[in-house]
Design goal:
With about 375 residues, the chain is mainly β. The protein is built from four helices and 17 strands. The protein has one domain: Beta Barrel (Porin).
Length: about 375
């Protein structure tokens, strides 16, 4: 037993070092059973190492109305997502997780998750390393279980993404509380003293579920046919400060979010509200965002969905233009009640111009640089999960 704990400490230090150079939320039981843990290498202590693979290949076709463009249409294929995950146990209470991603532009491999999870009791788990901050529900949702081709524009602006942290997770019956002390918002793979890190940061999230099923049921917005009614209510807050130690930017950031997810027999509804307060030492700004999403299975393996995004920037900002977007689409699941192999098509209408808003161009989300309103984007994506 002593040897196992020494081995766990050594491995954890190695993962933390890699992070300096969440996990994805647990997949549904159906996905785990048919796709994500098929490679198992037994170690001498009979605790297997499990490997998961994930790929999403897309085609984008975009149309902009900018008058200075000779060719207003832009299209092509791209490897939207290419990931490999490894997880293994030292004993029944210690798990190590590593997730790597190949960058779309150039193929450079980066570390997403690298942390140890210590189960200290049936109710409490301590996570140490690099993982997702416990803030927006959509960011915590598994990328394998997205309803549209990619996450919402609101999530892109307001999520805290990943950081290097110490996090406690306490679960009691239908309630869950997560609290993290970290390097701050989007400090993934940042070293000590990096200007993008904070001197200190705290993040907390509380979730209350209602109805049947565990918390794993809410790792995506959709709901299979035959499911019973359930709901998840979540609230979260984040605050960080910088500029008081060497080389960090003089920047304070506060943020809050509230979300509600409803699921039933083949249908799902969700709403998100987000706010952030940014103080860079000059004028401070308050920005807001809202997302609403609905999905419905018209047949067992065919799901339709729609989504609204609104990002409302502070009027005192230079880039103060509000940005609204609508998304509609469908998904075909090749394996019933499984995300292991699926084909998604969605159409996006960006009602406002990108220039002058909080949204920078992003190919994953189909948004290109534009000084005109009414930009359109069509995406088709084939996803594999093994």
């Amino acid at each position: 037993m002593t040897r196992r704990y020494i081995t766990a400490a050594t491995a954890l230090c190695g993962l933390a070092a890699l992070a300096n150079a969440s996990p994805e939320q647990t997949h549904r039981a159906e996905l785990l059973s048919d796709a994500s843990e098929r490679i198992s290498l037994d170690n001498p202590d009979e605790f297997p190492i499990r490997v998961s693979l994930r790929s999403r290949f897309t085609y984008n076709y975009n149309y902009r109305r900018d008058s200075d463009l000779d060719n207003k249409a832009t299209g092509g294929f791209r490897s939207h997502l290419s990931r490999i995950g490894v997880r293994g146990r030292i004993d029944d209470n210690i798990e190590l997780r590593l997730q790597l991603n190949a960058d779309v532009d150039g193929g450079e491999v980066e570390i997403l998750d690298a942390y140890g999870a210590f189960k200290l009791s049936d109710e409490f788990t301590l996570n140490v390393g690099q993982k997702k901050l416990p803030f927006t529900r959509e960011q915590l949702n598994s990328s394998a279980e997205l309803t549209a081709v990619d996450r919402s524009l609101v999530n892109r602006v307001f999520s805290q993404n990943r950081s290097q942290l110490v996090e406690g997770v306490y679960t009691q019956f239908d309630s869950r509380f997560m609290a993290a002390f970290s390097d701050g918002r989007r400090a993934q793979n940042k070293d000590i003293g990096d200007p993008d890190t904070a001197d200190w940061a705290f993040t907390g999230r509380f979730e209350q579920k209602f109805g049947q099923g565990g918390f794993g049921r809410y790792s995506g917005y959709g709901s299979w046919r035959g499911s019973e009614f359930g709901a998840l209510l979540g609230v979260a807050g984040h605050y960080q400060s910088g500029g008081d130690t060497g080389r960090t930017d003089d920047r304070d950031l506060g943020a809050a979010t509230a979300d509600l997810m409803l699921k039933g027999d083949g249908w799902g509804l969700a709403g998100v509200f987000a706010w952030q307060h940014v103080d860079d030492g000059g004028p401070s700004f308050n920005d807001f965002g809202a997302t609403a999403i609905a999905s419905y299975f018209i047949e067992e393996q065919w799901e339709v969905f729609c989504r609204y995004d609104g990002v409302f920037a502070d009027s005192d900002r230079d880039n103060s233009r509000d940005f609204n977007a609508l998304t509609v689409g469908f998904t075909h699941y090749f394996i019933p009640q499984s995300h292991a192999l699926k084909f998604t098509v969605d159409a996006q209408w960006f009602l406002d111009r990108q220039e002058g808003s909080l949204l920078s161009p992003n190919n994953n989300q189909g948004l290109l640089a534009s000084d005109r309103a009414d930009q359109f984007n069509l995406r088709a994506a084939l996803q594999f999960v093994y």
